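Researcher: I'm preparing a figure for a lab meeting and need a structural model of a single chain. I don't have an experimental structure, so a prediction will have to do for now. The sequence is pasted below. Please return the structure as tokens so I can convert it later.
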Amino acid sequence: MTNAPQHLSALLAAGSLVLLPACGGPPQSSGNGDPDGQKQLLLVSYAVTKGAYDRIVPKFISEWKAKTGQELEIKTSYGGSGTQTRAVIDGLDADVVTLALSADVLKLEESGLVDAGWEKELPNNSIITNSTVAFLTRPGNPKQITSWADLIKPGITVVTANPKTSGGARWNFLGLWGSVTQTGGNQQQAEAYVSSVYKNVDNLPKDAREASDVFLKKDQGDVLLNYENEAILATRTGDLKDPFLVPEVNIRIEGPVAVVDKNVERKGTRKAAEALAKYLFSEEAQAIFAEEGFRPTNPTIWSQVKDRFAPVKQYFTVQDFGGWGLVNKEFFGKDGLWDRLFAKTR
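Model: Understood. Here is the structure written out token by token.
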């Protein structure tokens, strides 16, 4: 069991920790092991999902109370997906994780926290949301950035998060790479292109939300690469005044959910944790994800909302690069492609 100082360090490393109280009366018990008392769960997620879970979690708590009569308390923690993954491995006591990419869940599996085969335990290979890469530009798009190729124009400053800490940044990286390899280019051409893009990157914020703040609130950069859902949110809040661009050749971003098996077995929270994970596929939860700018994976909800989203003519996926096992090693592992390119561009 993790000692108190280590656990506190993990909590601090993970970023914000928000308490969402159970609906209904006062707690009957503070122990997770009491089947008739209050249960406590910790949902660990990546930075840009907070708005969705602020709405989804209370609805699930109410549904759980109605079905079981049991009080439920859910804490939530947000930060860069890579940072969150490391925090869970180091002792952040998550019951459920909804991370930015399946690669991070695989790290939890490799650490013995998540059982093998987790992808098959829920619908759609346990992918609860899709998104894609969007380009946000300055008002009037003065640098005329309309395609992946424009990102290497002289004088263009690109904002994107750090692939070492941010799942969104890894999706951006794969979007850049695939814009070459999935349209007829070879690996050498892709490496030259991606290297040129990162030469135009001044700094690497730690996560997708911080990248948005750097571009929108600190006015740094000519173009921001980020999740489409972040662009939709910025438009809704008024931080982004002009339309954003979704390239027609793009990566399908897939956000997974998994129960942290080792933790829920120890804490006696499996039933509630599995119910929460399953609830994220419900039409009610999927509709909220859609309202928050994520592309829902529930077919019924997607058919109702697809006209809200920019069309993508050619999607490619992580499977086109060999799957996350290979990508984790070849692209983002120690001395992998990212490390080599970063050394060249800095």
